[in-house]
Amino acid sequence: MTTAEALDYASVFVFGLTGGLAASRAQLDPVGFLFLAVITAVGGGTARDVILDRQPVFWVGEPANILVACAAGLICFVWAPRLESRRRALDWLDAVALASAVGAGITAARWEGAGVIVTVLMGVMTGCLGGILRDVVCNEQPMVLRRGELYVTAAAAGAAAGAATMELGGGIGPASILCGLVAFGLRAGSLRFGWRLPEYRSRPPRS
């Protein structure tokens, strides 16, 4: 199993868990759990592979990814009611999923020979799109749009760190690890310590 495949499986499982937690918050039936787990788990990677023209798309070539996502959804169907705060669990699991998915995105882009800019963008897309689909389907404000929170910023910083490492001659493995640490560290800091970006503040028009 390659580094890219391992990262895809890891991100699929953890993002599947976040989809299951979102389904529990929406009080869906088991099929709803499976649906949300799968679209959350494979959404970002699917868009990445289509744009990079990778054949086949990762979960078509490795259908076990769908089974992993379904297993994550069913785990949440049993486990989620025991959680004291599903919102907080969702936030932290999503941070882990973001870190692993961004690493999977830059690794896949590098294998396809993409340049630095495309590699960073593929990392951000792989990390963010699945969560956006999950939140939109559940009629919740997407995490990427929460005011001031570090989400896309965390993904972009992690992807940039990983891409720069590979560009400077570092291996894919160390680059993926650094990418994940940077992305998770910034996202965790935002959740735990309230790290924020400056917010836009409108001013009254000049008379």
Automatic annotation (TrEMBL):
<keyword id="KW-0812">Transmembrane</keyword>
<keyword id="KW-1003">Cell membrane</keyword>
<dbReference type="GO" id="GO:0005886">
    <property type="term" value="C:plasma membrane"/>
</dbReference>
<feature type="transmembrane region" description="Helical">
    <location>
        <begin position="6"/>
        <end position="24"/>
    </location>
</feature>
<feature type="transmembrane region" description="Helical">
    <location>
        <begin position="117"/>
        <end position="137"/>
    </location>
</feature>
<dbReference type="Pfam" id="PF03458">
    <property type="entry name" value="Gly_transporter"/>
</dbReference>
<keyword id="KW-0472">Membrane</keyword>
<comment type="similarity">
    <text>Belongs to the UPF0126 family.</text>
</comment>
<dbReference type="InterPro" id="IPR005115">
    <property type="entry name" value="Gly_transporter"/>
</dbReference>
<feature type="domain" description="Glycine transporter">
    <location>
        <begin position="92"/>
        <end position="163"/>
    </location>
</feature>
<protein>
    <submittedName>
        <fullName>Uncharacterized membrane protein YeiH</fullName>
    </submittedName>
</protein>
<feature type="domain" description="Glycine transporter">
    <location>
        <begin position="6"/>
        <end position="80"/>
    </location>
</feature>
<feature type="transmembrane region" description="Helical">
    <location>
        <begin position="57"/>
        <end position="80"/>
    </location>
</feature>
<keyword id="KW-1133">Transmembrane helix</keyword>
<feature type="transmembrane region" description="Helical">
    <location>
        <begin position="31"/>
        <end position="51"/>
    </location>
</feature>
<feature type="transmembrane region" description="Helical">
    <location>
        <begin position="172"/>
        <end position="195"/>
    </location>
</feature>
